[in-house]
Amino acid sequence: MKNPIKIDHCIASEVIDSRGFPTVEVTLHSQHYSASAIVPSGASTGEGEALELRDNDAKRYMGKGVLQAVSHVNKEIAPAIVGKEFVMQSILDDLMIKLDGTENKSKFGANAILAVSMAFSRLQAQINGQKLYQGLASQFSSQGITLPVPMMNIFNGGKHADNGIAIQEFMIIPSGFDRFSDALRAGIEVFHHLKKILHKKDLTTAVGDEGGFAPRLEPGVGEAGPGSHERVIVMILDAIMAAGYKAGSQIFLGLDCASSEFSKKNSQGKVEYAFEGSQLSSDEMTALYGKWINNYPIISIEDGLAEHDWDGWKAMTTKLGKQIQLVGDDLFVTNPQYIKKGIEMGVGNSVLIKLNQIGSVTETLEAIRLAHHANYTTVVSHRSGETEDTFIADLVVGSDAGQIKTGSASRTDRVSKYNQLLRIEAALGAKAQFKGKAAFKR
């Protein structure tokens, strides 16, 4: 980096995320510069994620308070970094990881470490006279000019809703355009046309955690009946057509199945999936996805099988990996150790990138770099418990990731990321690139 950064002050506080639960905010000061960052929180989480430290005090925020994480920043991390100079991000992050001393950041909490790490990225960029995406591009050794294809979650299920739909996210992927802003506009228009279609069917247009619609398609409580998921797909295709776009050439579909949430091991130790009233094997789930891929313009499936179903993932990749993008989220948890395992086994062909799964900016960039070197695609992602912080918008540009998941076309915690990407596109001007369909092939 151009200049060593001397941290003069570091303060953490408890603020609120998009679900109304506490999270950690950190502000760093250096001379007359200051920068802040707020960390997100997930609902559907992989077992291998770095630990998000919660107070578990039932008298405060139903046990979701983060005063311990805040205290760790103010009383342990701050004394170790204030007054010291850091030439680069990795030195700061490595120091905090060493101070924590645990494999999954369980002493301080990944939410404590990450908030400091993100704030430092902003501070460093400011002092070096850069925008955040430019500073991250410098760290990543990329040009920092590629705007991402938005993967817009316009229908919510799973843990993001309470409607009996097992699949967590039904996404539209407007990759058949020349500019990010055009792709975003198309996605937003489809979102509004889907709302009209739901109204005509007397279905609720209330939204889930990530801003997508979340109506119940079948009466009663529990798993939706046979065919319910395909009904969602057909309604989305109808919305694409009603908006005046072409499915399969301009706008494609993506699924985040989050299948760990509806899977379990049977008495023989095999993973089974409770789906539309049936218990399906890994092979049967893969066959179902294969049928959908043949019938609908689906180009990306995330967590199609459970995080412990590595054999099933291997077979699914063999069968479907040349046709579509197979994204590992719970499977890889942004952890280079798991990503390396997947690469060696030939499992999946894409990695979901979530900052708070690994807990530092340095390790996040390492995960992206590792995936790219293996010709895996990467998708930078929000969490269901988001904030007004737009860090991931700069991260996706700075790392040349090419794809972003940051929710639907509603809720400010989601739209703020799209607005930041529009600002970046405008700032880049003629330099801005949009890979479109090419983002799905490395």
Key traits:
442 residues; alpha/beta; Enolase-like, domain 1; TIM Barrel; nine-stranded mixed beta sheet; three-stranded antiparallel beta sheet; 13 helices; 38% helix
Put the structure in a nutshell.
This protein has 13 helices and 19 strands. By secondary structure, the protein is of the alpha/beta class.
Can you walk through the features of this model?
- This protein is an alpha/beta fold and 442 residues long.
- The protein folds into two domains: 5-129, Enolase-like, N-terminal domain (Enolase-like, domain 1); 146-440, Alpha-Beta Barrel (TIM Barrel).
- It is built from 13 helices and 19 strands.
- The chain has helices at 67-81, 89-100, 110-127, 132-140, 180-200, 228-242, 282-295, 310-320, 336-345, 355-358, 361-373, 391-398, 412-428, and strands spanning 5-6, 9-16, 22-30, 33-38, 85-86, 146-147, 149-150, 152-156, 169-173, 252-256, 263-265, 271-275, 278-281, 298-302, 325-328, 350-353, 377-381, 403-405, 433-434.
- The strands form five sheets. A nine-stranded mixed sheet has the order 7-18-17-16-15-14-10-9-8. It has a three-stranded antiparallel sheet with strand order 2-3-4.
